[in-house]
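Researcher: Structure for this, please.
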Amino acid sequence: MFKKIQKMISSEELKALYPVKDRAFKMQRDNEIKAALEGRNNKFLVILGPCSLDSEQGIFEYLSALKNFEELVKQKILLIPRLFSAKPRTFNGYRGLMHEEDGLIKTRKILTSAINDFGLSGADELLYLFSYEYFEDVISYYTIGARSAVNQEHRFFASGIDVAVGIKNPLNGDLKLLENSIAIAKNPSSFYSNGYMVETNGNPYAHGILRGFQNSLGAHFNNMAEARRLRNSSIIIDLGHSNSKKSHTVMKQNYKHILSLLSNKNIKGIMFESYLKEGRSDEPIFGQSITDACIGLKDTKKILLDLYERL
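Model: Predicted structure, token format:
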């Protein structure tokens, strides 16, 4: 039984409430990411930020720092802030800003501020397909998470998105399933969506994200070195999640490991969780993650400057 609590604001109303000031700039960001994935520019993608959106003040302070870092590395690195609005959960836990009261409005405000005030259109995880119509004009990179990677509706939907989509390997680490998901997203599809039968042209910028995997007993395994097995896809390496056993300390070690893998030219970028303060807490602490542990701002800067020198 479902109890209706509140009618959702429409996407048109929300976009009018928090509009994008410079659509051309956003499109330029989209195209830079696409070019990096195809090797048409010299940019290496770094997708970084908190595990999930929480407080507006904390996110804005983080974006301000990220903008300063961008000035130091922009000749070689394209920074894409993680602005994940809704978290998939295997167990109970914080499910992201979108699930709070007026969550769509709070999320839209942050996403538009990221691009309007900081010049950083971000990345979001496509947990709810309906959210695309609310945020597509402010998001330059979508991910499909490990729990959704083999969901047919998500794979079909990715084929119609006009920005880059990174698909994470499934929780069990099956790279053949990941290859299939990427192929479905790259090819034209017809399917039902939002009350219509729709057709898509396929998304040539669909690619894989290696984030590690778990076995049936819950043990975590690193798959960062498996990028060579996915020869026909651009790859992003996630330094966190099962690759790090969700430890921010191991994430920093993984950064050093990834340097030895960069000769593999289908690795187009890295992803890691980063916030104002390192680690995580079950209690709300300003600038610290309440979900997965993050690398702090000081070490984030170190990683970016070191990567810049090595690229």
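Researcher: Any notable elements?
Model: Residues 67 and 118 are 7 Å apart (CA to CA). The chain has a mean pLDDT of 94.
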